[in-house]
């Protein structure tokens, strides 16, 4: 495999209800979805915190995917828990309950072996903590970041400071408009890229992904699926596939970014087909490459 990816984020237990079923206390969290998705492409090192209720059985999915968990800290208390539900459109989660538990006092402390990471993904955590992580990484080649409306609204100054050190920002369309202060996505994207990130990736749920890069704008659709059970973790699975391909390619040209967007979309499509990590954990490289080729056919057209 290629260069390793460092991911910092949450490991959680989720309780999710959709019109098509429900799951109680299943493994989730941004770092979990990202690392499992990225592991099909690259070596992954994870930094997160879990509680005393996190068992060896829960940890087994990391082991099965050869994810380095030297940075997974066990603390006294309960693991972060989130409970939410989706309506029929499945585009937006309605949070019913959030219990930060041990995650509330989480301060990322990177093992020395992690500090040489070339590819860094900062999951959706406090932008001040994201900056602390970057302070501990020696010479990252690529830094990608996620954030949310809570931080845009409550810690904008800290977020702006972090964004100056970020190469790629991955957020959804509502967050793009909020951060850019523009209703028009193109105008908002231009303002955000002026803040620091060279590349902005806008997640649009069932409508796909838009990438605003240095050389071009690129759009990829969401893969048309017969069954969608649970969108939880789709954005993090996308980011894992995207960053995984970048690290595997060790290239930063426009063609690589476009392929990475499609690989991210492939991983997100598998994720939403089942609850929790079931859709990702049973994948093979053959499955992934097969759906990548389906994406190519889906988006291909001939010139006149």
Please characterize this protein's 3D structure:
This protein is α/β, with parallel strands linked by helices. It has a single domain, classed as UDP-N-acetylmuramoyl-L-alanine:D-glutamate ligase, CATH 3.40.1190.20. The protein contains eleven helices and 13 strands. The strands form two sheets. It has a nine-stranded mixed beta sheet, with helices on both faces. It has a four-stranded mixed beta sheet with strand order 3-2-6-7. Helix 9 (254-271) crosses helix 11 (285-299). The longest helix is centred in the last third of the chain and has 18 residues, at 254-271. The mean pLDDT is 95.
Which keywords apply here?
304 residues; 13 strands; alpha/beta; UDP-N-acetylmuramoyl-L-alanine:D-glutamate ligase; 9-stranded mixed β-sheet
Proportion of strand residues: 15-25%
> What general outline do the C-alpha atoms trace?
globular
List SSEs in N-to-C order: EEEHEHEEEEHEHHEHHEEEHHHH
Computed CA radius of gyration, to the nearest angstrom: 18 Å
Helix % is: 25-40%
Distance between the termini: 41 Å
Order of strands across the main sheet: 5-4-1-8-9-10-11-12-13
Tally of discrete structural domains: 1
Specify the biggest β-sheet.
9 strands, mixed
Count of helical stretches = 11
- Find the CATH superfamily: Ribokinase
CATH structural architecture? 3-Layer(aba) Sandwich
CATH fold category name = UDP-N-acetylmuramoyl-L-alanine:D-glutamate ligase
Give the tally of β-strands: 13
- Which residues sit in consecutive blocks of at least 5 with pLDDT less than 50? none
The CATH class, by name, is Alpha Beta
> By helix and strand content, what is the structural category?
alpha/beta
